Amino acid sequence: MKTPVAPGAHEVWIRNEVIGLNPVDWKVLGDAELGWQPGHVPGVDGAGTVVAVGEQVAAAWLGQRVVYHQNLLADGSFAEYTRVAAHTLMRVPAGLDMATAASFPCPALTAWQALNKIPCPAQSYVLISGAGGAVGHYLTQLAVRRGLHVFALCHPRHWDRLAQLGAEHFIAFVSDDSFAAAGQIFDAVIDAVSEEHAASLVPSLRANGHLVCIQGRLSQWPNSPFGRSLSMHEVALGALHQFGDEQAWHQLTRAGEQLLDDLDSGELIAERLVIGDFAGLPMLLDELKHRTFSGKPLIRLFQRG
């Protein structure tokens, strides 16, 4: 689309510079429940410049470098231009490159939401399951910054990287002796694998512990009444587009801008970036689906002069 129509009153048009690819992008393709019509544009993460604003949007947004997480029900970021609700925008710091910014929204904001679910104080023990993925990459850093002791459950190929980010202990599989020997020591378990995997981790929680599910919540409560009194939490970043109010979005985007500042200053470390061009998008999406590479896949639409 070369010449976008006028945005809605509370919307902006963004000319995308870099697109971020996420697992949700391949998972929703062909999902009839979303009601996508032929011609619908997928993609949830993008970074670019605001080129048009709606009647109720401050003119100061024009020309602003921004990053966003898009509503799955709206046309997404896999395009030159994307129309986005203004309240979802996050400003990109002047010193941060747009590729790093585009790699940020879905994994980093999901990690922020997940950690905010648990009230554990400093020195608590947290198990991050699926720590080798994009969400785990940010979760590890945010948990360490909060003073938590991080156990990373993931493939050993990720251990060196996660150790550099502050993880203290490493487990390859739930069946490992090291996991069984740990016993009920965790104040919180954050699982980014599956409902079944999350259920297998419940025995490792202490009384009054917290189970946070990112990839499928448990269909049944994890303990009997008056047992260990476990709490269960669900994380779904996209749900905010349907159910989030102004206060919730303000909280999320302000937190997002602070994390972007932390990326700019080096206090937060982004994943290794794997950048392709638009013609290579299907291939990168397929490689992401089959996990044939390590890093964050991105598509650069154009290079700033």
UniProtKB/TrEMBL annotation:
Q: Where is the Enoyl reductase (ER) domain?
A: 1-299
- Which GO molecular-function terms appear in the entry? oxidoreductase activity
Q: Where, by residue number, does the polypeptide cross the bilayer?
A: none
| The organism's place on the tree of life at top rank | Bacteria
InterPro entries this protein is in?
ADH-like_N, ER, GroES-like_sf, Lipid_raft_assoc_Zn_ADH, NAD(P)-bd_dom_sf
Coiled coil segments of this chain: none
Name the PANTHER family for this protein.
PROTEIN AST1-RELATED (PTHR43482:SF1)
User: What is the designated name of this protein?
Assistant: Alcohol dehydrogenase
The species is Proteobacteria bacterium 228
